[in-house]
Design a protein that fits this description.
Elements (H helix, E strand, L loop, with lengths): L1 H24 L2 E12 L9 E16 L3 E2 L5 H12 L3 E13 L3 E15 L11
Length: 131
């Protein structure tokens, strides 16, 4: 009787190990870098700004069987999240990365932006006299 219980216990362990290995084989990841951006808005040489520090933001979506995607990852939302965390106006030295994780029945796609958040300093214009 003990041998039968031992054999059943081993069979459960083997089944669990095979299921885990199968799941890992059907799970994958891919990451795609996007070229580095100088800034999210044009900044001229005379534009003054304060660097508020590093920040990041992301946007994700999922798909079922790689066919039906619920929306698309929104890069604008990721930028708004990163800039909003520091209460700034724009980002400089920006990197953007898209990452997709595949599982057995679904996948998750995430867009992540990182960079320095800046706040523009208003420039006072000299008074101009009218004739």
């Amino acid at each position: 009787m003990k041998n039968k219980e031992y054999a059943m216990h081993n069979r459960k362990q083997y089944t669990a190990a095979i299921a885990l290995i199968g799941t890992l084989l059907f799970t994958a990841c891919a990451s795609t870098p996007v070229p580095r951006l100088e800034s999210t808005v044009p900044i001229g040489e005379t534009t003054k700004y304060e660097n508020l520090g590093w920040s990041s933001g992301s946007s994700s979506t999922w798909s079922f069987l790689g066919l039906w995607m619920r929306g698309r990852p929104d890069v604008d939302r990721a930028f708004a999240e990163a800039i909003g965390r520091k209460k700034g106006d724009a980002m400089i030295d920006v990197t953007c990365r898209e990452r997709t994780l595949w599982f057995v029945l679904f996948s998750v796609t995430t867009v992540r932006v990182q960079g320095e958040v800046v706040k523009f300093i208003p420039v006072e214009k000299p008074n101009v006299r009218k004739k």
